[in-house]
Amino acid sequence: xxxxxxxxxxxxxxxxxxxxxxxxxxxxxxxxxxxxxARCDLLAAEEANFxxxxxxxxxxxxxxKPRPKEENRxxxxxxxxxxxxxxxxxxxxxxxxxNTPLLQFLALLLERKRLxxxxxxxxxxxxxxxxxxxxHQMYEIPAGDLSPEFFVKIREQLGVLVGGAPAAxxxxxx
Length: 174
Fold this sequence. Notes:
- By secondary structure, the protein is α+β, with helices and mostly antiparallel strands.
- 24% of the residues lie in helices and 27% in strands.
- The chain has helices at residues 73-76, 81-89, 100-112, 148-162; strands at residues 2-4, 24-31, 37-43, 55-63, 78-80, 116-121, 127-132, 138-142.
- The strands form three sheets. The chain has a three-stranded antiparallel beta sheet with strand order 3-2-4. Strands 6-7-8 form a three-stranded antiparallel beta sheet, covered by helices on one side. Strands 1-5 form a two-stranded antiparallel ribbon.
- The longest helix has 15 residues, at 148-162.
- Mean pLDDT is 78; it is low at 74-78 and 164-174.
């Protein structure tokens, strides 16, 4: 799965203020009403003033670091399932229950592609331990029940990500 997406913006979408080294930045991945994927970056302090235009797929927080001049911008524009997982699962990010089903699905997908290796569960049994095959970084992902209900729940987020229409709700029996 690959998406072309703009890199981290240099300014806050809500206030227009230029990000400074060390600022906490909240990023949203949004499917616009025109059907395009957009990344919206803003200062964490401005999040209350932000209303995304479209369906929000996920949200994450990170610390702003200015891009080095020699960075390859074309490479930074590609958002794959792997780097979306790495971004959302980064231990520095605050846990977000809205992202949890997407994170669990991406972990399953990447485990099947052998990019993540299962390493058991945490002592409390609440999270799965996964090792990134290339970097050997360990990630703790909330354990979940991969039931049919789980896939129905994640279907809408996946529809937003890949551009499908939201799933129709089943008709109620009379």
